[in-house]
Amino acid sequence: MTASTLAAGTATPSRWPGLLRRHSAMPLVIAAALLGTYLWVRSSRLDDIEQRSLNATTLLRLLRQHLELTAVTTVVVVVLAVGAGILLTRPALRWLAPGATALANIGQATPAIGLLVLLSIWLGIGFTTALIGLIAYAVLPVLQNTIVGINQVDRSLVQAGKGIGMSPLAVLVRVELPLALPVIMAGIRTALVLAVGVATLAAFINVGGLGELIVTGIKLQRASVLVTGAVLTAALALALDWLGGLISDLLRPRGVA
Amino acid sequence: MTDDVMISLENVSKRYRGQKAPAVENVSMTIRRGEIVVLVGPSGCGKTTTMKMINRLIEPSSGRICVDGADVTSLDGTELRRRIGYVIQQGGLFPHMSVATNVGMVPKMLGWSRRRIDERVDELLHLVGLEPGQYRNRLPRQLSGGQQQRVGVARALAADPPVMLMDEPFGATDPLTRDRLQNEFLRLQEKLQKTIVFVTHDFDEAIKMGTRIAVLGERSRIRQFDTPERLLAEPADKTVGQFIGAGAALKQLNLRRVDAVEWNEAELMHRDESPTAVLRRLDESGAWAVLTVDSERRPLRWVGPRDLEPGQTSLDGVGIPVAVVEPRATLQDALDAMLGAGCGASVVVDDDGRYRGVLDIESLMRAIRDMREVERDRDRGMAEAPPRLPRQSDGSRDSASVRTLESR
């Protein structure tokens, strides 16, 4: 039996050059925006109020608070939404999927600020309240992408896996999830960016974060504070999205376009 | 007799919720150890459903299925499927795993050691004709359709299951590749002696592959379950006759093997002989051409008197390349090879490509004539002409008109 041979090419080419090419622009853009804002603030004379907000200690504290809120939200959302998405694609529970997506839709369709205010009336103000609001807001893209990602895996491959004697768990872990990963990661990235943006609203219920700069800037009419808050938030969102893209590309299984 | 039975279905039915008619109704059949049973029928007749109930990818609604003496419903589905090879169209390979990971999947789940898996993978790739060193680390998308199919077969064989289920395994390949895969698989099966259930909608493929063929009608009702020879010679009813289509005699070309007809001998000459020696041999023997061979007696070219010009000193590149067939190939393959090479003779070679004989167009025609005479005798016995209905396999022709053309 002779095999008609394709052009030889056993080794898969390294993925690093492609990665560098695709992911090197964004850090430069972010760095340029941050540097521009810094130079602008630096060159203007800051009054008392501005100085109270625009100093390294305060900025770092706010950034840390913002990151904390975003990170905890993302972790909880990934666990909840990916878990739920997996359950909702199992044959026994598939019928529940439309209902669950509709429910998650409500969380996202409600105006974020309204949701936070309503929650704080119910639960009081604080970190937990902000967290719950953010989670409700960010669950949908991850849930939906998990369901879509798993459902778009070629059914014949799932059949093949089952047919050669893989357990349902093995089919999920070795076939369905790896092949759904790019779609799921895209959902997580969307959720991440949403979370960074919506986390600015946490300032309204006294949880801090970069939103505090924006709120202060608006209330006290200090453009420098407002712009700094906005630029930092945007830069953070872009940076996290960039990181998500990089991770997604690194995790992307070989042989999947 | 009973311990010869590998798979048995007893009154098996499958009813889907919300559907009035069952998808499979009351099917009973026994499949013997080491035979290839082909389930063939029009699409939607439930043949795939019937097959998938054997490894419980689909649970039967009623009836009993036994594999190797054990009722399948008494076993854990996953455990059961690890002991039954499963091949689907295009191989069903996991695109994100290398060839080796795909093939080693079942052994890995069975808890084999790393080294044993590696050895087994190489052995299997070798078996299906893919050089392990070259293909082990490839991804499925770096393989041609035929190669993917071979890997699919290797994966199904990984844990050496006694039973294999094949669902239109060669369906997605072009006719040439399909032919080659079929021949390779038959050769493999001679060595392996697996019990195989093979689903196809292509009747010609069924004839070629099957030890026995079950022609299925709606709801998987068995219309006839017989050897290819008997199916062609005595279709049980009109529907089966229509499914076989016109020209059953010609279809037997797909059934008769090269080793079942008479071969001739060719005048062999070594490639290093001189053109003068060739001319002398042609004169002495009266043959139309000599067959040049290498030192392993592998056939190279046909060289006739007209291929030789005066003053020529070597036989290199002279004459027309030979078409070769294996003894196991069907007469259809041999005919295709002759037409492809534009030469009225195919050289029969053994597994190592060495010369064994020559099958020429005259012997082939004689075989066809014999087969058609048998068919014509049978047709005279049938009072009624077959109804004018399109054939299942090829709707463009109409069986009655083809029949008249052939019996002219």
Automatic annotation (TrEMBL), chain A:
Domain ABC transmembrane type-1: 63-244
Parts forming coiled coils: none
Transmembrane segments: 24-41, 69-93, 113-143, 191-211, 223-243
Gene Ontology process terms (BP): glycine betaine transport; transmembrane transport
GO cellular component: plasma membrane
InterPro entries reported in the protein's UniProt record: ABC_transp_perm/SBD, MetI-like, MetI-like_sf
Protein's name according to its UniProt entry: Permease
UniProtKB/TrEMBL annotation, chain B:
Annotated InterPro entries: AAA+_ATPase, ABC_transporter-like_ATP-bd, ABC_transporter-like_CS, CBS_dom, CBS_dom_sf, P-loop_NTPase
Enzyme class: translocase
GO MF terms held by the record: ABC-type quaternary ammonium compound transporting activity; ATP binding; ATP hydrolysis activity
Superkingdom, taxonomy of origin: Bacteria
Stretches assigned to the ABC transporter domain: 7-243
Claim: Nucleotide-binding is one of the keywords in the record: yes
Pfam families, alphabetized: ABC_tran, CBS
Record-annotated CBS domain positions: 312-374
PROSITE patterns named among the record's database cross-references: ABC_TRANSPORTER_1 (PS00211), ABC_TRANSPORTER_2 (PS50893), CBS (PS51371)
Alphabetically ordered keywords of this record: ATP-binding, CBS domain, Nucleotide-binding, Transport
Biased amino acid composition, Polar residues: 398-408
Region described as Disordered: 374-408
E.C. number(s) listed in UniProt: 7.6.2.9
Family: Belongs to the ABC transporter superfamily.
Name this polypeptide is given: ABC-type quaternary amine transporter
